[in-house]
Amino acid sequence: MSQPALLRLSKVSKRYGTVQANKEIDLEVHSGSIHAVLGENGAGKSTLMKLIYGVEQPDAGHIYWNGQEVHLARPSDAQVLGIGMVFQHFSLFETLSVVQNVSLMIPGKPAELAQQIADLGDQFGLSVDPHAMVHRLSVGERQRVEIIRCLLLNPKLLILDEPTSVLPPQSVRRLFETLRKLQADGMAILFISHKLDEIRELCDTASVLRGGEVTGRVDPREHDARSLAQLMIGREMPNVAHVAPRPPGEERLRLNALSHPRASRFGTTLEGIDLKLRSGEIVGIAGISGNGQQELAALISGETRAQEPGMIEIMGKKVGHLGPMARRKLGFAFVPEERLGRGAVPEMSLADNSLLTAHGRSMLSRGFIRRSVERAFTRECIETFDVRTPGPDAEAGAMSGGNLQKFILGREIMLNPDVMLVSQPTWGVDIGAATAIRRRLLDMRDQGCAILVISEEMDELFEICSKLHVLHKGHLSPALDAAETTPQEIGRYMIGAAT
Amino acid sequence: MKLRLIRRDSASRLAMFAAPVLALVLTCLASLVLFAALGKDAGAALHALLLKPFLSWYSFSEVLLKMAPLLLIAQGLAIGFRANVFNIGAEGQFIVGALCASALPVYFPDGDFPMMLPAMIAFGALGGMVYALIAAALRTRFGASEILVTLMMALIAVQILNYLLLGPWKDPRGFNFPQTVMFPDNAMLPILFDGTRTNISLIFALLASVFAYLMMQHHFRGYQLRTAGLAPRAALYAGFSAPKMVWLGLGLGGLAAGIAGASEVAGPLGQLQRSVTSGYGYAAIIVAYVGGLNPLGIIASSFLISVIYIGGDSATVSAGLPVAAVEVFQGLLLFFYLMTFTLIRYRIEFDRKVPA
Asked: Residue B107: CB partners within 8 Å, gap ≥ 6?
């Protein structure tokens, strides 16, 4: 390539305390290219983007923009150069309109901005009503607002951090069309993701990060997903062994016309949810977060009490009025989507975190904690579930998301539950750990446990579930047989096109 | 060049011992400058502030006397604080404890009541606890902030005290002073060491410390309280009852403050008088936090703060320091202590890189 790269990183390093997040990273991004940064959770992708966007400064190494060395002390420095970034978690004010949100960052009269928003929308397929209130927008529309807000600053490089992780399949298609138009317009795009199929479809270059280092630079179109995954995790992709499920047994969890009013303006009201879960089966609930997933999980776990006892039945008993501890005594276990602060106490050791839900496993004697039992349980959990940690005394807050998830899942599995609810089992978990987690769930199923999985990852649900529901705006779709339905049909339920 | 605080992977043992020493040295240096600027003999002032409490057995016994209520109240408060239940009106519960205990000797001034002293302590404990539980009821029923309620209830307690001392409980032979009769001998706490005022309330406080240690560090109930404080959503997830934590946190705090109040009237005061509102309830909040809310740490911090109080008293008398200067000294010591305390969990890093 004759002309200099738009952005070039040379031997850029960054460390946090004892963790070397980025090590001597070289990277070149050219105009008109969609460049993937591929890596597992914790591989250093986010840190690298923060260095490029000026949120953090490198300890060593150089950053060149159009061949000139630059120092980015803050994001506004990066914006002046022409770098825009769309974060994974949106930074929009829900109570303001689209134009108002945009005008907080971009100077200009609201009427002119509204026109510009509409124009950009037409040009790049980013249609959104400039005067709509943000809290009424779907996730896909909110993302479009974020992208438009970046485009209004005329960037030459656009960074997208895991942009598809929150989108239904139909919206992903639209986003890709937009990105291709931007690419044709000469823009450089850094696309961060761990979804291999998307990268192969969209990107022309991929830099693979592993353990803070670049382990490969490839053209993803010339590699299959398997070899990309191998580059990414440094070993063979583990396989989920598929054992045909046995016919399911007796009913263990039942929701009877479960309705619950939302707790706040931004919550979701659940209406007339019916569901049956039997021993030896995994039932999945698909749908984008924010459509009542959190509310439903809290109602089933007992963190929120149902309005009537009969709305929820566990092991044939009406439990809607019971709290989490009483439901656990019936054989219920729950892995929540937030690991730190809900599934585990960050400041406490793993051993003390075992006590959180496993205290009934003879860990108490007259109310006093039996440390030896607590530690033995924790050690067994660490070994059986391959939790990478120095030991039972390590603080939960110091662990990576995937390891902590393995610990929490392991703790709940070791309670030998008859019914288990698992919410977003592999959110922010690397591929290796995610595969291990799915295999555990299948093992549990084969041992006769009834499992309900709430997940945004459709591939995951298709992989392990025999029946699927979709939760959209507080309504649950009828049960769909996983073997007969398609991602497209699920997608229609996800956006409310089918009911 | 930039200074940054980086969290250590584990607490530093060296810093744990060095922190108090460093704090003391820094305080001395700062106050030398301060006292010299006031034109006082800085050496004599520091001598009075820091050494006097240790130089005579009597001064040291006064330190122990002050330490007892501070330690007792702080242990009770820390239990609630660990669970994010912020009882800052221990002063009120202390006063109500003193009132309830005083009722017996006031109505039986000749001491002809069986088990006078144990009954007084029990009355005080019960009174302090019930008074604190009013805030628990308002919090769990109506969601009223226990911070505001306990604080306002402390103000109410002062007015109840005034009413009783100026009205029905006033000593008829007391020359119209707002105080009750002097308590009979069997209403007084036994003295621990002859010739001093230190009484067995110090034993109560140490027993409370053992109780707090066992409960908070080794009992499931304490674990639930800590979980509720560190991660309320994890406590909800595990199914620990949030209202129970509020009742427990406030109840134990009030109980401890009530016993301390009863011990104050049955100890150094020997009667109920206005000076019972000495601010122990508020000082105990500082004691609890300086002790890191840890039962063992609180034993150390209550001793430290008592030394500062007694040293301050002697400095105003012997070195002629104004009360304000003593208060500044006390503030400096706390300030430097908290500052150096940070070094146990954090280390300082110099950022050599010059930003472009």
From this structure: none
Range of the domain at A371: 350-415
| Residue A253 bridge partners (DSSP) | A277, A314
| pLDDT on residue B354 | 45
CB-CB neighbors (< 8 A) of B346 in chain A: none
Residue B232 within any structural domain of the chain: yes
Chain segment A128-187, per-residue pLDDT in tens: 888 888 887 877 788 888 888 888 888 999 998 888 776 777 778 888 988 998 899 899
Q: Quick check: is A308 in a domain?
A: yes
CATH number of residue A116's parent domain: 3.40.50.300
Residue B156 in any domain: the answer is yes
Last residue of a domain, one of A233, A264, A282: A233
Are the Cβ atoms of A57 and B355 closer than 8 angstroms? yes
Q: How far is CA B65 from CA A229, B62, B289, in A?
A: 70, 5, 21
A336 lies in a domain? no
Q: Which three-class secondary structure state does DSSP give residue B148?
A: helix
**A406-448 pLDDT, tens digit each:** 999 999 999 999 999 999 888 767 777 788 889 899 999 999 9
Section A449-465 average pLDDT = 90
Stretch among B27-36, B123-132, B204-213 having the lowest mean pLDDT: B27-36
Give the count of Cβ contacts less than 8 A between chain A and B: 77
Position A122 in a domain: yes
- Its ipTM equals 0.81
Cβ of A348 within 8 Å of Cβ of B353? The answer is no
- From A394, A415, A436, the end of a domain falls on A415
Q: Distance, in angstroms, between A483 CA and closest chain B CA?
A: 34
Closest in B219, B226, B234 to A341, CB measured: B234
Beta strands in A124-174 (DSSP E): 157-161
What pairs with residue A467 in β-bridges?
A283, A481
Please check whether residues A169 and A224 belong to one and the same domain.
yes
Q: Considering its fold, how many domains does chain A have in total?
A: 3
Nearest CA in chain A to B235: A342
Domain encompassing residue B153 = 75-291
Tell me which chain B residue has its CA closest to the CA of residue A342: B234
Please enumerate in sequence order all residues whose Cβ is within 8 A of that of A394, keeping only pairs 6 or more positions apart, or say none: A349, A350
At B356 the pLDDT is 40
Same domain, A410 and A483: no
Instruction: Please enumerate residues of B whose Cβ is less than 8 A from a Cβ of A.
Output: 6-7, 9, 214, 218-221, 223, 226-227, 230-231, 233-234, 236-241, 353, 355-356
